[in-house]
Write a structure and sequence with these properties.
- 31% of the residues lie in helices and 23% in strands.
- With 124 residues, the chain is α+β, with helices and mostly antiparallel strands.
- A hairpin with an 8-residue loop joins strand 1 and strand 2 (20-24).
- The longest helix is centred in the C-terminal third of the chain and has 17 residues, at 95-111.
- It is globular and about 40 Å long.
- The N and C termini lie close together (7 Å).
Length: 124
């Protein structure tokens, strides 16, 4: 049985505003256990490195859209966490993850890298 990612790329206009959902991670990004492991510590398999953003839980100030999804499907989720755009490695991302990275980079250019993050959880 496989493991899929769910969640949202979120942004805020400035440091004092609320977070808004921009991109549905599960819709854009495909299944990639190497990225799951490297970023979030999920499905690490043979990779034995320290993940960047494992088990942080959900941020208290997540977007309304993200909070609604979490409330609607709580029994499906594990590995809930978040990662700021400024924490993402500069590695070349491939496939659908490269598309997701483009969205993150565009939002970061427009609103500032500290105002963009991914809030994610897993199911499967």
């Amino acid at each position: 049985m496989g493991c899929d990612i769910e969640g949202w790329v979120e942004f805020r206009v400035d440091d004092h505003s609320y977070w808004l959902a921009a991109v549905n991670v599960g819709t854009v990004a495909g299944r990639d256990y190497d990225i799951y492991g490297k970023l979030f510590g999920v499905q690490r398999g043979r990779n034995h490195f320290e993940p960047i953003a494992a088990n942080r839980g959900f941020p208290d100030d997540m977007s309304d859209v993200c909070a609604l999804m979490v409330r609607e499907f709580p029994f499906w989720s594990f590995g809930d966490t978040w990662i700021g755009a400024d924490e993402l490695p500069a590695d070349k991302w491939t496939g659908y993850w490269a598309d997701l990275r483009q969205h993150i980079d565009l939002l970061s250019e427009r609103y500032g890298i500290s105002n963009v993050r991914m809030v994610v959880w897993f199911n499967g």
